[in-house]
Amino acid sequence: MSINIPAETPDESTNPISVEEFERLHPAMLGAIRKAVRHHTRKGGA
Length: 46
Hints:
Helix 2 packs across helix 3. The protein is an all-alpha fold. It contains three helices and no strands.
């Protein structure tokens, strides 16, 4: 699976957004982060 995630704009880098706004703008990225965290915690990672 390939996910095309554009780079941050300068505005996004200097003006943080809420988790809710991030989820609205980047649902695929948030899903990938959730999947990685779940995988890492199941493996007993540090």
